[in-house]
Amino acid sequence: MNTGSLSSPTRAPGPTLPGDTIAITGLGMVSAIGSDVVTSCASARAGITRWRELDIQVTDADTLEAVPLKGHEASSTTFGFEGFARWLRLGDAALRDLLAHSGLHPPAFARIGIHLQLPGTWLEEIHFQGSLLDRLPEAERERIRRDRETERTEKREELTRRFLPELLAMNHLPLAPRARVYSFGGAATFSQVLAQAVEALRSRALDRCIVGGIDSWVDEETLTQSFELGLLRTPDRPVGRFPGEAAAFVLLERLDAARARGARIEAMLGPVASTLETGHRFSGRPLTGAALFQAINACIPAEVRQRQEVGLTILNLNGDEPRAREYGYTLVRLQEAGLLASSRRWYAPEHFGELGAATGAVSMCMGVRGFMRGYARSPTILVSLLDDDRPRGAFLLRDSPWRQDTSGVTSLPGRHS
């Protein structure tokens, strides 16, 4: 059923906003606790988790028995698939969900683009550097590095040649090659992806843009690397992350384009900011929270500060002690600046596990569904993104000023029941 015109801003009174305001008009998602965005976010809201035993086993020091690691696996979607095929399965499920959720039809395909984030190679590189490489002669090390660089380049070229064409073909979504954009990196890279999409919309290169991320930390190669780097929680390691997997997509449109097709306005995208830390998770440099503070500070306008409208933060604390310490430093800086230190917080990894490149899009889905179902209890949501690598990011989500309850009566943002 097409739900694209259930709550068009042309049918309800509301504020006058510039035509280049960025509206969120569709969501799509698949995760370990839901095969679509509605089920995934409702399950997270209810505190549901779904654990699966993974292929790696460790010895429990107390019982001396082999114990499998646990994680959050979207087994109904990904069982039996690895690598490229696993990402494609996740992406296909999430994109199908978005197309059904948003009411997009072929006439709207003409000026639509897709900006997709996939995992970068940072984890692989750190894992490789921690191998026996340093024990080899310099000439041998240099040769291995060159070979690996060539191999990575070839893999990246093959991935970018095949992935989006296959994903789009599976969903009968014909997009021109120039409208397909890839980005690679961890959670905080998503802010850069959003900023690129916003620029394409406001420059009128596109009318609407699908933005999303796909990642799997339970995929065999990533799972092994993260375990050997000591990032995962085990019976003998009380801090660390549980691996997860997900894909999520969000449809962004200029407000004028959304109005023209009678789209349902689910939320608005506010300012987006990105920064870089001086070091990364394994660099040995202290992470002081300065970069994340700068990103948050940059994306909160003066009027939002004055009204104290941000009553909820979504962030990706995942059980990793250095990440928690960094966010603690960020909170100190926020408190000193009079910003957000006491806001409520939701943690995406609590329900979905570590999601890497999918974290930002999943966080957007959580926030928008919170608006739509009335449990966000805030007209504005801050999404803060930490990372193992250097990037840090933040952006604001705003509730739709044309929110309607089931009786068709317009509700004020953040006040619906």
From TrEMBL:
InterPro entries reported for this sequence: Thiolase-like
Record's protein name: Beta-ketoacyl synthase N-terminal domain-containing protein
Source organism, top-level taxon: Bacteria
